[in-house]
Structure prediction request, 264 residues.
Amino acid sequence: MGYACRIHLSNPNPKLEGNEFFQAEEEANTWWGIAICERTFFCELDDFDQPFAAKFPDIHAPLPRETNSLNDDNNFKTSQSTDSAEDTIRNGGYACIAQAAWLLDQVFKTIELTDIDAKLIQLDGLDHTLRTFLTIVMEQSQGKWGKFCTANAILIRALFTLHWEILTQVQEMTHCRHKSPEEWRKTSSSALDTLVNIVEDIAATQNGHSISVVESLPPSRAYVMRAALRHIEDAEIKSETWEQIKTQLELSLAQFDHRWGFNV
Prediction:
């Protein structure tokens, strides 16, 4: 439908005037949303071979803006896609979601590489970028529910996907450039353990809130909790605290299920 409506071609150029500019930006925002949702759902697949239907806008395209800021002409000048996480955060929650989803998209593209050593090096670089962005966004959140929740969830899901891929690739390797297979395994296992602890902290905070607060949380929260549970089940070395963490995560998932009436 998006292609049929030609919204993938929308270009909110500041030279456009009045309603023409705002319509172009609304269309571009809608296309961003389609691309973001597709990649978020893609994380739940077991096979990443199928192509995406929605292409991401060019990396130099303006990041999407919040609906309530579309009438703010001054905001447009700072809404260009950028490598600066701080600049992205200043553009609002939707811009952070878009940047997080773009990084997730880079993880999927890297997974497609056939050269294992090149794949591992690129994934290692993406790991650093994702962790840096996640740290800055979480610091901006300051433990509060709100506009950065979805971006945090996508970044966490991207990191789970990335490190599972590394563990899969080095499972039967006897030699790798740059790092030994054992070093790759230790690094990714440690990263996944850290992600489980982050998700547990999120779940513990959520479990202290009412159902009315739960309904304001993005469904992607439930997906990262399931990802954490998967690592707890699959990890070769089990932490002593994981049974307690597992209980917290299952309680949070039960809250989602109770509110929405289906097993998320």
Residues 116-141 form the longest helix (26 residues). Confidence is low (pLDDT under 50) at residues 74-83. The chain has one domain: 7-260. Residues 156 and 198 are 9 Å apart (CA to CA).
